[in-house]
Amino acid sequence: MSARHAAGCFARGLALSLSKPYLALSLWLTQLLLAAVLILPISNTLHDLLDHSSTGSRMVAYPEYGWWETFQRAHADLLGDFPKVATDLLTAEGAKLQQLAGVRGIGATAVSLGMLAIVLHAFSLGGVLGALREPQASLVTFGREGMRRFPAFLIFTFAALAGAAAVYRWVFLETGKVLNNRLPELDTERTALVVTGLRVVALLLSLAAVKLLADSVRTVWVARPDLPPVSRFFTGIGGFLSRPLRLLGVLLYYALTTAVLYLVWLLADPPAGGEARFALVPLILTQQFFVFVRLLVKVGYYAGITEALTRAPKPEYSYVAPAPEAAALSAESEPAS
To answer: Which of 94, 222, 251, 284 lies in disulfide reach of 173, CB 3.0 to 4.6 Å?
Structure first.
């Protein structure tokens, strides 16, 4: 029953997202502005290296990952240790906060843009949730609602980030330290992989709980402006605790739909015909269209969370007393005994 309700909430959320495509457009423009900071240094570097390479004309259609690994080693000043920090996230030791101090070049810029993206995420999410509840909304509504909820949503976003960091440390890193000496003592390598897989599953479920809790508080914060701030906060927590399976179902449908989009991209393989320079233009346009569709699904997820928290299914039996007018009409229609 919860799976069916979750599917209905997610489907209604997608329909609402498709009816308001300017919300996905605003998120797409925000991401494009953030990515524009890295376009020039990355493109200039690649042009400088590939224009004088014999494999440059084939790199768009068939990237050579051996060349990329060599590039990482030879130009550590350009990328820093950012690729290593990213690959260490799911290792036994995990990524440490101290590793960010060694990040340089494009990697350091990406980390700084990530912090800016967190701030913009708080603003954008306030605008999306506010505009979803307006029958007649526009980009003006998106900006107004985003600024109205920005202080509170910024606090919620950083609190969720801190919660995710705590979960990563105590659920994944600390258990890795405890099991580090015991994994070699297991009977088979498959058993060790199962233990590591269970740690990853526990990490993902804990991170999902943190995300859903934060999204529930944000949704109720927008949906119940009649309540005081403290009441809205605890009502959001209560909404998460009362409907965890439905909310988790909406999140799983969102993750599954996003995975299907990436699978379609891999099977379609748009870069396959990108040997010629003029083919880069349709390739870039196709990529941006894919990003826009993914953002439509993302807005649909937040609309689905709103549906799951603020729209309850009709009960089979009602124990609510009828209205006085309905009771009087019912009494008049009954024959006198």
So the answer is: 94
Q: 56 falls in which pLDDT band (50, 70, 90)?
A: low
Write the pLDDT tens digit of every residue in 247-305: 999 999 999 999 999 999 888 877 665 555 556 677 788 889 999 999 999 999 999 99
pLDDT, tens digit, for every residue of 310-327? 864 444 433 444 455 544
Asked whether residue 239 is domain-assigned, the answer is yes
| Alpha carbon of residue 231 to chain centroid | 27
**Chain-centre distance for alpha carbon 213:** 14
What is the number of structural domains in the chain? 1
Structure tokens that stand for 25 in this block: 């457009």
Three state DSSP letters for the chain = CHHHHHHHHHHHHHHHHHHCHHHHHHHHHHHHHHHHHHHHHHHHHHHHHHCCCCCHHHCCCCCCHHHHHHHHHHCHHHHCCHHHHHHCCCCCCCCCHHHHHHCCHHHHHHHHHHHHHHHHHHHHHHHHHHHHCCCCCCHHHHHHHHHHHHHHHHHHHHHHHHHHHHHHHHHHHHHHHHHCCCHHHCCCHHHHHHHHHHHHHHHHHHHHHHHHHHHHHHHHHHHCCCCCHHHHHHHHHHHHHHCHHHHHHHHHHHHHHHHHHHHHHHHHCHHHHCCCHHHHHHHHHHHHHHHHHHHHHHHHHHHHHHHHHHCCCCCCCCCCCCCHHHHHHHHHHCCCC
User: Which string of b and e fits 207-228 if b means at least 16 CB within 10 Å?
Assistant: bbbbbbbbbbbbbbbbbbeeee
Residue 36 lies in a domain: yes
Residue 49 lies inside a defined structural domain of this protein: yes
Positive or negative, the CA dihedral 110, 111, 116, 122 is positive
* CA atoms of 220 and 7, how far apart (whole Å): 20
